[in-house]
What does this fold into?
Amino acid sequence: DQQVKQNSPSLSVQEGRISILNCDYTNSMFDYFLWYKKYPAEGPTFLISISSIKDKNEDGRFTVFLNKSAKHLSLHIVPSQPGDSAVYFCAASGSSGTYKYIFGTGTRLKV
Amino acid sequence: DGGITQSPKYLFRKEGQNVTLSCEQNLNHDAMYWYRQDPGQGLRLIYYSQIVNDFQKGDIAEGYSVSREKKESFPLTVTSAQKNPTAFYLCASSPVGLETQYFGPGTRLLVL
It folds into this structure.
């Protein structure tokens, strides 16, 4: 079963507007979340993270929101730029000492 | 400058052949990981290692083997038992604990 879901395989946004990428998870033990950006034929690059003690984390144009009760997180990119066009993955892990991250299937953003 | 290197960028495997993918990091990270990415899917964990001379199976370890003889190196062997090896393979590393993972550029494996 897919514990981390990105239900939108693709998203198209105009330059300068807001991009909102969504991620849902099913395991309530997850308490640390990351977003990665990936260009074709390259490794993912880390964008931003959030732990469950927060509901928002901001870094420049990127903001991640966490709604624990809904088991939902979202990545906001404002303003969107053509260089943001890539595949975005969310990943989640628990605090049980595991090193394992569970990745979503990714959302392809086109700006 | 520090980083993770993977080689080769492209690798071709013949039927019944074992091939080894290289992963080296100079970030002084204790933990290293191997993932597989297939089209339209997320990254799936093959093996991970938290410390030298120790490693654990991930979610899809069948048909793969690893070694961790040095802190900076974590090679992955795709054995002939892996019936569907064509994929993009990514190596990552992180400091101890629940830390951000940093990825290498990946190796694309193709079967001839």
